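Listing 4. Sequential folding, example run.
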Amino acid sequence: MAETDSPPKSQYFNLTYPLPYVAHVEINRPEKLNAFIEPMWLALPPLFSYLSNSPSVRSIILSGAGTRAFTAGLDIAAASTSGPLAQHPPPNASSPSPITSDLNANASSLYSQPTGTPYTSQKPPPPPPSSPPDPARLARSLFTHITTFQNCVSSLEKCTKPIIAVMHGYCYGLGVDLSLCADVRICSPDTRFAVKEIDIGLAADIGTLSRLGKSAASASWVKDVCLTGREFDAQEALRMGFVSRVVEVGGKEGALKEGMRWARVVAEKSPVAVQGTKELLNWSRDRGVEDGLRYTAVWNSAALQTRDTAAAMRAQKKGGKARFEKL
């Protein structure tokens, strides 16, 4: 990536550079407790792809604007008026839902024939307006929506640069999804967490059910909080290993200060070593030890040729800090 490339613009995310090689991404919808609407999650992949490929970024802080919330999760009021969670008439209703109309239109278009096709069958008429939605096509539409949403949130996990999530206030639903895609999680004492999807009639489908069990100490506890939707506080999150630190002093600002300290420590290390470590940890998480060892050997057969190793060893002998080239 060229140094002159500009980051993608979004009114919902503030991007700053508080320290050398450190980026700070702030979720910016504080008047709605940083609750997510569709343009927000669609903005995540281009933003984190930019940060992933920027040679001027080595570590990332993720936080929420305002004093009340990291994020309250999905904006339920907005989601209830459009998209898959909107209320639609049942299949025997007199008029189709917007989703049904779109699906019926798409279904009829499947029979359109390009010019020059050898067959001559007539294009069938579109289904009447009162037709119920075709379950297969509705399922396909919902599948596409869900996987798109999943991929947007997973863009944090796929980012090559380590991310520390600094949480405060409410961290509900999608906030848990996002934080699980970060590499390190810390919070202020006032943070309140919940996997709330079950309370709106859903099994959480954006990542929590797949990732929380790999990030907490107890499978029983994971099922407890996911099946009840109950709130748990910062100290419980710490005991269960969901967060690695509760910053007891300074509230949100104290937690951000600790996040800055961590990000600075990581940014001062070799980017070859840091990005390799993240890649190998994530790759090995869902695989056996032998597979992880093999992949590590292949990775380091290239990475060990870096000049960073010699520079780091010289600096340690002299009691100083090495300076590393951009990557």
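-- end of first protein; second protein begins --
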Amino acid sequence: MSLLGNDVRNLAMFDEAVNLHTQALGGLTKDGSQPLHDREVLEVMENLATARLDRHLYGEWQAGELELANKMQMEVVKHREWRLGKEHRQTLGSYCNLALIKAALGATEDAELMIRTRLPIAERNLGKTHISTLHGKASLGHVLMRAGKLSEAEAVLDDVVREHERTRRDHPNQLMAAAFLMECYVRQGKLAEAAPLQEKVMKGVKRIFGDGSPWEDVLNAKAGLQYIDRT
């Protein structure tokens, strides 16, 4: 059920994703059959928390949704640290997702610190160009953008996009970072810089999801690129 939830989330079907992950979590934890620190339970909890975040950012958000996501993701972080240790890749990834949720709640300083203090660990243990490390850097760029630190966000995101271009061109994570950078340019009024990225992101979305994917409208609307004058 949770895997299906990920599938529909990837198709920008946010309500369906939240519902499926909720059902999956309920099935796993019914009557205490599996404890909260169980690996599968933690995966579903994180899927549900991030699906709620996506619905808030890109869909029709609901009151109190981010607070629920924050509480759930904090549980995931706590149990991942206990089971795997503070420096494990999954623990670091869970902190990254928690930071994105906190940034959406407006706690951008806490979110920025949460990522900055763990990026050196990822760089040491995984390498500076590891896909998980670059995901953390892209998340930092997103947090900086939400904090209004647009020039700094642009530099971070541009570095991530360029590194992906060098090592794994057109990877979905590069498209995510490019979409963040696209939005960052638009927020600064740099429409000439945003337009080529829009083309790159839309080509990638069509390649992965096919023509007419809801993500085309979602990403363009989020960045405000429907207002770009291409003449």
